[in-house]
C-alpha cells in the first residue's frame, strides 16, 4: 500500500465524487429494502451556498449516508424553488440594466427572459452542494416550476376550490411596493425604526376649535374618512355627532364613536384611513365608511394626494410636515420609536392595501395538522418547537395565496365577463369552456376567456413538495409515491415552521391522509463568535466554497457539525486574515470591503476538523509502516484488542442512541473520541511493535479490520478522506466501495473489560504524570507498589508506563510518589535523581493547602442549615470533596514519613 505523506483534499475530493456519480451509488429505485427518504428544503433558484445551507445540507448528508450504510434504500431528492419574488426581482433588474421595463413587454416575453435566467443561473447552488459531498440522487432533481410540478399545483388549486376551501375576496393585504405584490403576514418582518409622532389639528366644522390627532404617517391624511373617539371619553362628549376638516385636504369627515379607541393612548382621537391600515379597515367596514386609496402600487401618492401626486410616500412625509407647520395645522412633533412592517424578501416598508385576492381557508385543514404534531405522529427535534407550532396553528388566519407577479404558477381562474363572479376555475382554458357550459350554461370560445393575471404564492407549490417530487398528485397510486412516501426525516430551519413545515403536513393529510415525514429536525442559525447572525453585509460570513478550498470539504463539515448543538443557534468561530496570514481588525475588514477585496477566512473549528483528518491519515501511515511477522499475538496485544472490540461495540450503541435523539454533533464527538483517544491514543500505542521488531500478522490484520470499522462510522461525516483510505487499504471493486459498505451493528459488550482498561489507562497516566512533573525521562523504568491484588491489564501497564515490576498488595517504606485510582493506591519509589529535601518541602506545602481546604468543607457540612436546605446532590458533592481530601492527606502524611 502506497500512501502519500500528507492528505490532499484538492486532489482527492473531485476524484471520489466523480467515482460515486459514475457508479450511481446515490441513485435509488424502489426495491425490497426499507426506504429512507429525505426531500431537500429546495433552495431558491436565485441562491448561492451560504453557511446556513452548509449546516443544513451537511446534516442531511450525514443522515442519508448513514442510512445507506445501515441497509436502507436511501433516496435524497434534490431540487430548487422558483422563488417568485426573488427571481422576478432579479429578472426585472437584468432587463432594467438592458434598458427594458417590465411594463413594456408582454407576460410571455417576460417569462422567456425568466426561463433564460433560470437556465443560466438556476443550477449554481446544486453544483455547489456537490462540492460539499452531498449524496443526492441527482437523477431525480426537481424544480417547482417544471411542467409536471406546476401541473400538480394547478390540480390542487382546482381541487381545493371545488371543495369550497379556496375563495376570492376583497381584503386588506400587505403590499410590497418594491416587488409590486402583496405578501402574507408571515413574510412581514417588524423592525424598530426611529421616526416622529405628528400631532395634527383637525378643525371642527363651523368652529375655531380643533381636535388633536396623533399619527406617524401624515402622508395618509389624503385617505382619511373619519376621526374616531371612545364613546366613554368625557373630554370629547361635546363633539359627538360633529364633523372635522382634514388638514390640507379640506375634506369634511364625521366624528364617529367606537370602544376600540384607547382613551389613554395618544390624544384619545384616531384618524381613520380604511384603505391604509388594517385596524382602520375593520372600523371602516363596521361604520360603512368610504374607502379612499391615496397610494399607487409603487408607494407614490396618486391623484387623491393633490399637489403631492406622483411623489414617494416618504418624501411626502417630510414635505407635508413642513406644509402643516406653515399653515398652523401641526400642533407638535415628537421623536418616536415604533415597529414598522417590512418585506422579508425586499426589505421595503409594507403598505397596507385593500384589493381583491385569493385565499385558502385554513381552520378546517389546520386542526388535523396540529393533532399529528401534538400526538407525536410527527416528532419535532428539539421538542420545544411544538409550543411555537401549537400557538400558530391555534391562531391561524386564511392564507392569502395570490401574488401580483408573472413568475410562478398562474392562477387557473378564467373570466368570461365583467361581473365580480364572472369566472370559472379549471386546469386549463379547454377545461374552463367545459366547466363554463356545465356550471353556468354558457357556451363560449377560447378567445372569450381571459386568465387571472396573478400568480400563486411560491409556498403553494412547495407545500406539495414531498408528494409532487414523486408525481403523487398526478398519479396517486404510482409505485414511487407508494414506496417513498411518507418520507423519513426533514431537516430545516425553525424560521419556516409555518411557511413550509405546517403547510406540508396539511397538504399531506389532505391528499394522502398520511403525514409527509416522521421527524423534523430544526437547525439553529449560524452566528459568528460574538453572536451576530452571519451576513455578507456585516462582513462576518465566510464563503463555504472558500473554506472548502482552504481546508477541504471534510474539515469544514466536521467544523460546522462540532458547533451544531441540536436546535440551538451555533457560533461558528472564524477570523478574516490578509494575504500574509495576519488577522485583520474590524476597521481593516471594513476598509477591504470598501476596496472590493475578497475576504480570506480562517476558522479554528475547521482547523480542528483538518487536524482530526491529519491524525487519522497519520495513524494509517503508522500502521502501514510496520513489518508483519509470523508470530503469535502477545498478552498486551490480546488484552488491547479485547478491550477495543468491547469499546467499539459500546460506542456504536451510544452513537446510535445519539442519532435516535438527533443529537448529531454529540454522535460526532463520540466517534472522534473513539478514533482519536481510544484508537490512536491507546490502541495503537499498546500494539506498536518495539523498535526494530515487526508486528504479528494476526494483530496487523485485526488492526486493519478495526480501522475499517472506524472508517465506516466516520464516513457520513468525512466521506472523502474515509473513501480515500478505504480504497488505499486494499483494491476494491465497485461493489465494495465504502459509500455503500455496511456499518457494524451494535453488539453486546463487556462493561468490566472496558472498566479494567480504563483503570489501566489511569494508572499509566498517573505514572507518566509523575515522570513529567519530576522531570524524569520516560526511558527510566519504574517499579510500583499497590494495594490492589492484581491488574487485569498488567502487561499493558508495564509496556505503556515502562514499569519493570508491580508489587501487588504491598506497601513500600521508600520515599514515594503516591496517587489514587478510585480506591486503588499506587506508589512509585522516587528516583535517585530527585532532590528529597525539595520534594519534602513541596509535599508539606500541598499538605498545608489540603488541610485548609478540608477545614472549609467541614465547616460547610457542619452547618445544619446548609445540610437541611441545600439540594441532596449539592451536599453529596461536598461530602465527596471531604472524602477525597482525607484520602489525599493520608497519602501525603505517609509520604512525609518515608521522606
TrEMBL record:
GO MF, one example: valine-tRNA ligase activity
Chief localisation class: cytoplasm
Positions annotated to bind ATP: 536
Keyword Cytoplasm: yes
Catalytic activity: tRNA(Val) + L-valine + ATP = L-valyl-tRNA(Val) + AMP + diphosphate
Motif ('KMSKS' region): 533-537
Broad class of enzyme this protein falls into: ligase
Span of the annotated motif 'HIGH' region: 43-53
Domain of life: Bacteria
The Aminoacyl-tRNA synthetase class Ia domain, residue ranges: 15-572
Domain Valyl-tRNA synthetase tRNA-binding arm: 835-899
Keywords, sorted A to Z: Aminoacyl-tRNA synthetase, ATP-binding, Coiled coil, Cytoplasm, Ligase, Nucleotide-binding, Protein biosynthesis
Pfam families documented for this protein: Anticodon_1, tRNA-synt_1, Val_tRNA-synt_C
Subcellular location(s) of the protein: Cytoplasm
Enzyme Commission numbers on file: 6.1.1.9
Keyword Iron-sulfur attributed: no
Annotated Methionyl/Valyl/Leucyl/Isoleucyl-tRNA synthetase anticodon-binding domain residues: 643-785
Domain remarks: ValRS has two distinct active sites: one for aminoacylation and one for editing. The misactivated threonine is translocated from the active site to the editing site.
Family label: Belongs to the class-I aminoacyl-tRNA synthetase family. ValS type 1 subfamily.
Protein role: Catalyzes the attachment of valine to tRNA(Val). As ValRS can inadvertently accommodate and process structurally similar amino acids such as threonine, to avoid such errors, it has a 'posttransfer' editing activity that hydrolyzes mischarged Thr-tRNA(Val) in a tRNA-dependent manner.
Subunit annotation: Monomer.
Name recorded for this polypeptide: Valine--tRNA ligase
Naturally occurring in which organism (per UniProt): Chryseobacterium tagetis
Amino acid at each position: 500500500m502506497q500512501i502519500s505523506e500528507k492528505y490532499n483534499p484538492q486532489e482527492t475530493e473531485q476524484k471520489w465524487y466523480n467515482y460515486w456519480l459514475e457508479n450511481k451509488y446515490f441513485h435509488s429505485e424502489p426495491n425490497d429494502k426499507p426506504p429512507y427518504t429525505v426531500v431537500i428544503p429546495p433552495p431558491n433558484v436565485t441562491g448561492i451556498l451560504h453557511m446556513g445551507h452548509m449546516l443544513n445540507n451537511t446534516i442531511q448528508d450525514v443522515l442519508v449516508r448513514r442510512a445507506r450504510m445501515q441497509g436502507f434504500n436511501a433516496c435524497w431528492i434534490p431540487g430548487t424553488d422558483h422563488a417568485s419574488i426573488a427571481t422576478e426581482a432579479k429578472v426585472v433588474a437584468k432587463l432594467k440594466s438592458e434598458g427594458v421595463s417590465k411594463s413594456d413587454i408582454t407576460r410571455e416575453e417576460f417569462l422567456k427572459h425568466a426561463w433564460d435566467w433560470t437556465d443560466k443561473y438556476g443550477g449554481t447552488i446544486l453544483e455547489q452542494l456537490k462540492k460539499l459531498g452531498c449524496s443526492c440522487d441527482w437523477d431525480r432533481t426537481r424544480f417547482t416550476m417544471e411542467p409536471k410540478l406546476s401541473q400538480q399545483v394547478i390540480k390542487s388549486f382546482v381541487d381545493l376550490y371545488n371543495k369550497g376551501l379556496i375563495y376570492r375576496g376583497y381584503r386588506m393585504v400587505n403590499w410590497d411596493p418594491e416587488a409590486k405584490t402583496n405578501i402574507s403576514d408571515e413574510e412581514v418582518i417588524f423592525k424598530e425604526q426611529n421616526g416622529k409622532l405628528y400631532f395634527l389639528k383637525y378643525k371642527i366644522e363651523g368652529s375655531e376649535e380643533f381636535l388633536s390627532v396623533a399619527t406617524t404617517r401624515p402622508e395618509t391624511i389624503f385617505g382619511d374618512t373619519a376621526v374616531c373617539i371612545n364613546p366613554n371619553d368625557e373630554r370629547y362628549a361635546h363633539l359627538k355627532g360633529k364633523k372635522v376638516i382634514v388638514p390640507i385636504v379640506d375634506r369634511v369627515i364625521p366624528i364617529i364613536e367606537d370602544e376600540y379607541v384607547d382613551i389613554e393612548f395618544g390624544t384619545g382621537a384616531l384618524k381613520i384611513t380604511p384603505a391604509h391600515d388594517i385596524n382602520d379597515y375593520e372600523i371602516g367596514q363596521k361604520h360603512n365608511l368610504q374607502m379612499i386609496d391615496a397610494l399607487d402600487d409603487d408607494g407614490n401618492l396618486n391623484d387623491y394626494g393633490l399637489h403631492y401626486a406622483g411623489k414617494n410616500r416618504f418624501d411626502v412625509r417630510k414635505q407635508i410636515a413642513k406644509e402643516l407647520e406653515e399653515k398652523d395645522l401641526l400642533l407638535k412633533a415628537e421623536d418616536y420609536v415604533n415597529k414598522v412592517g417590512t418585506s422579508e424578501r425586499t426589505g421595503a416598508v409594507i403598505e397596507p392595501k385593500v384589493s381583491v385576492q385569493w385565499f385558502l381557508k385554513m381552520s378546517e385543514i389546520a386542526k388535523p395538522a396540529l393533532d399529528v404534531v401534538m400526538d407525536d405522529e410527527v416528532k419535532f427535534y428539539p421538542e420545544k418547537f411544538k409550543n411555537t407550532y401549537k400557538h400558530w396553528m391555534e391562531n391561524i388566519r386564511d392564507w392569502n395565496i395570490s401574488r401580483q407577479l408573472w413568475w410562478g404558477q398562474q392562477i387557473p381562474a378564467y373570466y368570461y365577463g365583467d361581473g365580480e363572479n364572472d369566472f370559472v376555475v379549471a386546469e386549463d382554458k379547454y377545461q374552463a369552456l367545459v366547466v363554463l357550459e356545465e356550471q353556468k350554461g354558457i357556451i363560449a370560445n377560447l378567445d372569450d376567456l381571459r386568465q387571472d393575471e396573478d400568480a400563486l404564492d411560491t409556498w403553494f407549490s412547495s407545500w406539495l413538495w414531498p408528494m409532487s417530487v414523486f408525481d403523487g398528485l398526478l398519479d396517486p397510486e404510482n409505485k414511487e409515491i407508494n414506496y417513498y412516501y411518507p418520507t423519513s426525516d426533514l431537516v430545516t430551519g425553525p424560521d419556516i415552521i409555518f411557511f413550509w413545515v405546517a403547510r406540508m403536513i396539511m397538504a399531506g393529510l389532505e391528499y394522502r391522509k398520511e403525514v409527509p415525514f416522521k421527524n423534523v429536525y430544526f437547525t439553529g442559525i449560524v452566528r459568528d463568535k460574538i453572536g451576530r447572525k452571519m451576513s455578507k453585509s456585516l462582513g462576518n460570513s465566510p464563503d463555504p466554497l472558500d473554506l472548502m478550498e482552504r481546508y477541504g470539504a471534510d474539515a469544514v463539515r466536521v467544523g460546522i457539525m462540532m458547533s451544531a448543538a441540536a436546535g440551538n443557534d451555533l457560533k461558528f468561530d472564524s477570523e478574516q486574515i490578509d494575504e500574509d496570514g495576519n488577522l485583520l481588525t474590524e476597521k481593516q475588514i471594513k476598509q477591504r470591503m470598501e476596496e472590493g477585496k475578497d475576504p480570506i477566512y480562517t476558522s479554528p473549528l475547521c482547523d480542528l476538523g483538518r487536524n482530526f483528518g491529519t491524525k487519522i491519515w497519520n495513524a494509517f501511515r503508522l500502521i502501514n509502516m510496520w513489518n508483519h511477522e509470523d508470530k503469535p499475538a502477545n498478552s498486551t496485544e490480546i488484552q488491547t484488542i479485547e478491550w477495543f472490540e468491547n469499546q467499539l461495540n459500546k460506542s456504536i450503541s451510544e452513537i446510535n442512541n445519539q442519532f435516535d435523539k438527533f443529537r448529531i454533533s454529540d454522535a460526532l464527538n463520540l466517534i472522534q473520541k473513539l478514533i482519536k483517544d481510544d484508537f490512536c491514543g491507546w490502541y495503537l500505542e499498546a500494539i506498536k511493535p518495539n523498535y526494530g521488531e515487526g508486528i504479528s500478522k494476526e494483530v496487523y490484520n485485526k488492526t486493519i479490520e478495526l480501522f475499517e470499522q472506524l472508517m465506516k462510522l466516520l464516513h457520513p461525516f468525512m466521506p472523502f478522506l474515509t473513501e480515500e483510505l478505504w480504497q488505499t487499504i486494499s483494491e476494491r471493486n465497485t461493489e465494495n466501495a465504502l459509500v455503500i459498505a455496511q456499518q457494524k451493528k451494535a453488539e453486546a459488550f463487556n462493561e468490566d473489560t472496558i472498566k479494567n482498561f480504563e483503570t489501566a489507562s489511569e494508572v499509566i497516566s498517573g505514572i507518566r504524570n509523575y515522570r513529567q512533573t519530576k522531570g524524569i525521562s520516560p526511558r527510566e523504568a519504574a517499579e510500583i507498589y499497590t494495594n490492589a491484588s492484581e491488574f487485569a491489564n498488567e502487561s499493558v501497564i508495564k509496556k505503556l508506563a515502562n514499569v519493570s515490576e508491580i508489587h501487588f498488595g504491598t506497601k513500600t517504606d521508600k520515599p514515594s510518589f503516591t496517587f489514587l485510582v478510585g480506591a486503588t493506591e499506587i506508589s512509585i519509589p522516587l528516583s535517585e535523581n530527585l532532590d528529597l529535601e525539595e520534594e519534602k518541602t513541596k509535599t508539606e506545602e500541598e499538605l498545608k493547602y489540603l488541610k485548609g481546604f478540608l477545614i472549609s468543607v467541614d465547616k460547610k457540612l457542619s452547618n445544619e442549615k446548609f445540610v437541611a436546605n441545600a439540594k441532596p446532590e449539592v451536599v453529596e458533592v461536598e461530602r465527596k470533596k471531604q472524602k477525597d481530601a482525607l484520602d489525599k492527606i493520608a497519602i501525603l502524611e505517609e509520604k512525609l514519613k518515608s521522606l
